[in-house]
């Protein structure tokens, strides 16, 4: 999880009239002049159909009725009634398992005429051995796993955030080979984008690495194959700060001729006006952020709840294992703790 500061000619159809082979000399036919009030009917030229609007631009985000917050009852309705990302981890261990889980979730969203949001979180050496450590065992296993996800996404038009913290951790002494990780992220961006997903590579946040450094790492990690990048996943930075930083990142991408990229911000837990720098693991001051929504304002696609509020960051500040539902933590976010 996030932590410390560190992509007509209209062809006219020619109609050929068939003629007889040996017709007699034609009779002279007088010209027919239409009456003054006769209507002249002209067939309008064929026009190409207007391009279909991408459903993600009009549909609401999907709310999972089986989420822990939703199942926890009315006390947590402000969390459970909001759209949140489904996290795909190695608990769906095989390509078949992750394909089936992905398809089941996105199919429910399509049936409800909503847009599913998912987070891919299984890169080898994930979290550099931290609270959310784990991931697939090898690069080969990861590629096969990603292909399984892509197969499950086909035709469902979802939003997919790829590998929170994986880019921001690059260069950390406790982390795996950065070049290998960049190749894996690039592979994931290509495969998932080809499935029809809007893909956002996670970029960290404004209190971690510089925008210039982040832009360089995004370029090396295949952002050219993605719709863009995500920021503030599982963190608490204010939206204005994230937008300013993201715009600097975009400027860095443009300087390398990577144009037109978009970004999303995780606003699930950024409701506290003065977040403390460096505090990332279940801080008691954190509060629920604004309702998630896609807005499509310039390069800013919208604010999402990527981290599921009420799920722990790990064994810190009284929390259980990372990802576990934690009622006390949820109450704190609601200002009741």
TrEMBL record:
The keyword Transmembrane helix does not apply. Belongs to the glycosyl hydrolase family 6. The keyword Nucleotide-binding does not apply. It comes from Nocardioides marinquilinus. It comes from the Bacteria. Its EC number is 3.2.1.-. Residues 1-22 form the signal peptide. It is an enzyme of class 3 (hydrolase). The lineage of its organism: Bacteria, Bacillati, Actinomycetota, Actinomycetes, Propionibacteriales. This is Glucanase. Keywords: Carbohydrate metabolism, Cellulose degradation, Disulfide bond, Glycosidase, Hydrolase, Polysaccharide degradation, Signal. It holds the Pfam family Glyco_hydro_6. The active site is at residue 165.
């Amino acid at each position: 999880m996030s932590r410390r500061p560190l992509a007509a000619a209209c062809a006219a159809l020619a109609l050929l009239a068939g003629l007889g082979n040996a017709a007699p000399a034609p009779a002279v036919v007088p010209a027919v002049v239409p009456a003054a009030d006769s209507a002249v009917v002209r067939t309008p030229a064929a026009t190409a159909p207007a391009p279909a609007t991408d459903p993600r631009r009009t549909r609401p985000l999907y709310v999972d009725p089986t989420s822990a917050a939703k199942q926890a009852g009315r006390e947590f309705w402000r969390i459970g009634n909001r759209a949140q990302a489904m996290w795909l981890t190695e608990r769906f261990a095989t390509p078949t398992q992750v394909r089936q889980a992905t398809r089941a979730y996105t199919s429910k969203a399509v049936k409800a005429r909503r847009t599913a949001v998912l987070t891919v979180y299984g890169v080898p050496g994930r979290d550099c051995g931290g609270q959310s450590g784990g991931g697939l065992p090898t690069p080969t296993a990861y590629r096969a796993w990603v292909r399984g996800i892509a197969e499950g996404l086909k035709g469902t038009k979802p939003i997919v955030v790829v590998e929170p913290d994986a880019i921001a951790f690059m260069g950390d002494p406790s982390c795996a080979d950065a070049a290998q990780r960049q190749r894996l992220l690039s592979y994931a961006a290509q495969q998932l984008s080809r499935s029809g997903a809007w893909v956002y590579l996670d970029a960290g946040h404004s209190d971690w690495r510089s925008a210039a450094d982040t832009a360089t790492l995004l370029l090396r990690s295949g952002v050219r194959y993605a719709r863009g990048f995500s920021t503030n996943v599982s963190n608490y930075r204010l939206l204005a700060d994230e937008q300013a930083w993201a715009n600097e990142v975009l400027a860095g991408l443009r300087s390398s001729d990577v144009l037109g990229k978009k970004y999303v911000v995780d606003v699930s837990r950024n409701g506290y006006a003065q977040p403390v720098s460096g505090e990332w693991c279940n801080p008691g001051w954190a509060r629920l952020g604004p309702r998630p929504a896609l807005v499509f304002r310039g390069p800013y696609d919208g604010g999402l709840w990527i981290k599921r509020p009420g799920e722990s960051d790990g064994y810190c500040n009284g929390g259980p294992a990372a990802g576990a539902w934690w009622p006390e933590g949820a109450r704190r976010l609601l200002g009741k703790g």
